[in-house]
Design brief:
The protein is mainly alpha-helical. Among the domains are: 86-239, HUPs (Rossmann fold); 382-477, Arc Repressor Mutant, subunit A. Helices cover 46% and strands 9% of the residues. 35% of the residues are buried.
């Protein structure tokens, strides 16, 4: 039997990085076994739907290189792939469970359930449904269901245990008497997650279920549904959550959590995929930089950890820098395009890109580092122009002396410029570092950026001299 896994995003907001990690594990599992991956949209929670969320999910997954064979837009033999378009299917299966005695109609009002919960809390009891409607004779319940508002509840046995051998957590079991008679079909005809996911996984021929560990407590309810229909339970793997550094659930208060945010901040897909694979999985070696092809060869579901992996932005920055440096210059220029103004000269961008490639952590950093090449509107910081242990007057003199060899340097290239500046520093009794600090601020307006001599070469003689003279005037006048 061919391996089939599924990813099942809910269109309730932006594509979360934690969901992406789980989706990526599904992809690796399928690719390793020449299997197929299905995308199914789970939108049964209609109150939380967000307009445009499906578009965002598709865009984010495609950008990351996560692909699938069947889905809402791709079609397939088990269409439709949006749960809200499959309601008759769930309703039919809910009726079958009732008729088989594995579920029952419940007519309790919201008010009664709220009062029941209040009383249980007052008595410090476990809050759960008291099974009042479970004792209604099936024929009477079926007749009442024709005219009265109702839900369908799963009939959980009073005793016994339910168990699975999870691919990540190992053997896990639950006592039946700790499980509530869960609602599986709501009064509006929509299923809850528990019914919909089991029915869909069965009908879509999903062979392995890989999902977040937050669904592990729901497994016994799912096992009962599988058992009631006589279906075989597929192997399951409940992978750990992506946690914030403080050990809590990763949320917006910890910074970016959506794929679109990371993309806008200048992270690249290769780095995100590499880092996400390691949040909750270890190859058992010191190796940590992996391409998709590497991960297909080396990732193993059995090596996924049970403890949640903590998000580490510094580690992501490290991987992003590694993968930026692995790009060809042409590819890096292409990826920088959305991060720099449209009016910037692309041929000049191509020339400066190799100078910043080794220093970049994100694509978004590039604009500020190289803006001095594309604009003359620099803002000088008077204090930064003057090196430590030097004063404004001596810095003005040093800058003036530096303009002399720069005015006549031939050819106007980085090696020649370097020799000229080193010569001036020696004549002044300054260190080369002191002089280049002042020159960098004068020429670029920044303390950090591409290598100075190469920057001066790209800027050109005329602009370089004009900027140095402007910096001299600023210092001489004591301005800021």
């Amino acid at each position: 039997m061919s391996v089939r896994v599924r990813i099942a995003p809910s269109p309730t907001g932006e594509l979360h990085i934690g969901s992406v990690r789980t989706f990526f594990y599904n992809l690796l599992f399928a690719l390793q076994r020449s299997g197929e991956m299905v995308l199914r949209v789970e939108d049964t929670d209609q109150e939380r739907l967000v307009a445009g969320a499906i578009d965002s999910i598709y865009d984010g997954l495609h950008w990351l290189g996560i692909t699938w064979t069947e889905g809402p837009r791709e079609g397939g033999p088990h269409a439709p792939y949006v749960q809200s378009e499959r309601l008759p299917l769930y309703q039919r299966h809910a009726r079958q469970l009732v008729e088989a005695g594995a579920a029952y109609y419940c007519f309790c009002s919201k008010e009664r359930l709220a009062e029941l919960r209040r009383q249980q809390e007052a008595r410090h009891e476990l809050t759960r449904y008291d099974r009042r409607c479970r004792s209604i004779p099936p024929a009477e319940a079926a007749e009442r269901a024709k005219t009265e508002p109702h839900v369908v509840r799963l009939k959980v046995p009073d005793e016994g245990t339910l168990a699975i051998d999870d691919l990540v957590h190992g053997h896990v079991e639950w006592r039946a008497d700790t499980i509530e008679d869960q609602i599986i079909l709501k009064s509006d005809g929509f299923p809850t997650y528990h019914l919909a996911v089991v029915v869909d996984d069965q009908i879509m021929a999903i062979t392995h279920i890989i999902r977040g560990e937050e669904w592990l407590p729901s497994v016994p309810k799912h096992l009962l549904i599988y058992r009631a229909f006589g279906w075989q339970v597929p192997p399951m793997a409940h992978v750990p959550s992506v946690l914030a550094p403080d050990g809590h659930k990763l949320s917006k208060r910890h910074g970016a959590t959506a794929v679109s945010e990371f993309r806008a901040q200048g992270y690249i897909p290769e780095a995100l995929i590499n880092y996400l694979a390691l949040v909750g999985w270890s190859p058992g070696t010191e190796e940590e930089v992996f391409s998709l092809e590497d991960l297909i060869r080396k990732w193993k579901i059995e090596q996924v950890q049970t403890a949640g992996g903590k998000w580490d932005k510094e580690r992501l920055d490290f991987f992003n820098g590694v993968w930026i440096r692995r790009l060809s210059v042409e590819e890096l220029v292409r990826r920088l395009d959305p991060f720099v103004p449209r009016e910037w000269d692309r041929s000049l961008l191509r020339k400066v890109t190799p100078l910043i490639q080794e220093r970049m952590k994100t694509l978004a950093e590039a604009k500020d580092q190289i803006a001095f090449l594309f604009t003359d509107d620099l803002r000088y910081d008077h204090a930064l122009l003057v090196p430590k242990k030097r004063d404004a007057a001596s810095t003005v003199e040093a800058l003036a002396r530096a303009t002399v060899p720069l005015r006549f340097a031939e050819p106007f290239t980085a090696p020649v410029i370097r020799l000229a500046i080193e010569g001036v520093a020696g004549e002044l009794g300054w260190t080369t570092r002191e002089l280049t600090i002042a020159l960098r601020i004068a020429v670029t307006g920044r303390t950090i950026g591409p290598p100075l001599y190469e920057s001066i070469e790209l800027l050109g003689r005329e602009k370089t001299l004009a900027r140095i003279e402007r910096a001299q005037e600023l210092l001489a006048g004591g301005g800021d």
